[in-house]
Amino acid sequence: MTPTDIAVIALSVAGIFFAIVAAVGVLRLPDLYTRAHAASKSDTLGAVLSLGAAALAFGAGVPTVKTVLLLVFMFLTNPTAAHAIARAAEDQDIEPWTTDEEGDA
Question: pLDDT at position 104, please?
């Protein structure tokens, strides 16, 4: 197994891990704001790592350039979209989840 193969596997596994973390965050977190945070941060990192693995696997050429352009596009647009969604929720007066004074949900 070459060092490139090891790097592709490591990036793929890390990308899958962060994608699973994002999915668990979206399912388990209590409100829109925390879910948007989990989705924008973890999902973006997972996608970037997975696309990095794909770019390494392709080697030099046009597919690698397209993969890197997609990687940059996702790196810029995913957090921006999550911010826009959270801002729209704030504009619609959607309150963040909080606990009451006794500590009950």
Answer: 57
What lies within 8 Å, CB to CB, of 42 at 6+ separation is 18, 19, 21, 22, 25
The residue-averaged pLDDT of 13-26 equals 93
Sequence letter at residue 60: A
Q: 58: exposed, middle or buried (C-beta count within 10 Å: 0-12, 13-18, 19+)?
A: middle
Q: Which two tokens stand for residue 104?
A: 């009950």
CA neighbours closer than 13 Å in the CB half-sphere of residue 73: 7
Q: How far is CA 48 from the centre of its chain?
A: 8
- N-to-C CA span, the chain: 51
List, in order, residues 6 or more apart from 39 with CB less than 8 Å away.
Answer: 22, 25, 26, 82
Whether the predicted pLDDT of 103 surpasses 60: no
